[in-house]
């Protein structure tokens, strides 16, 4: 199963999320285009639609998430230093189409130094 995790940067919180080109292989094909939409489910089982696009020209594709990303980042209150993980999961209803998950972890600091990460409080379902 393909996955990637990344520490959030200022550009990630304000514009778009760039990610490793290797994760492109796990996304649905773009059928000759430079963009593809896919859905990912968060820890609360909320489904988010993202658009992955790549450069139209140049030798390096540089994939980014654009559509849907800013709404996600805003709703999850992502900050520089938080960590995001996207992963491919087995579809429970059918083996034909892949499904994806997305998880947010908050940076934990002690005396100004990062000591680890914890699940986002927005990831915990209320009773």
Structural overview:
This protein has helices spanning 10-14, 69-75; strands at 3-7, 17-18, 35-41, 47-53, 64-65, 83-89, 99-110, 113-119. By secondary structure, it is mainly beta. Mean pLDDT is 81; it is low at 123-127. Keywords: DNA-binding, Nucleus, Transcription, Transcription regulation.
Question: Tags for this entry?
Answer:
2 helices, mainly beta, 127 residues, 8 strands, eight-stranded mixed sheet
Strand content: 35-45%
Q: How many individual helices?
A: 2
Question: What is the H/E order?
Answer: EHEEEEHEEE
Work out the radius of gyration: 15 Å
Shape: globular
Approximately how much helix is present in the residues?
under 10%
**Overall SS class:** mainly beta
Terminal Cα separation, in Å? 32 Å
Average pLDDT, all residues: 81
The tally of beta strands, per DSSP, is: 8
Q: Which parts are unreliable, with pLDDT below 50 for 5 consecutive residues or more? A: 123-127
Quaternary form: single chain
GO molecular function, one term: DNA binding
Subcellular location: Nucleus
Domain TF-B3: 2-108
Keywords: DNA-binding, Nucleus, Transcription, Transcription regulation
Please provide a brief summary of the model:
By secondary structure, the protein is mainly β. Helices cover 9% and strands 39% of the residues.
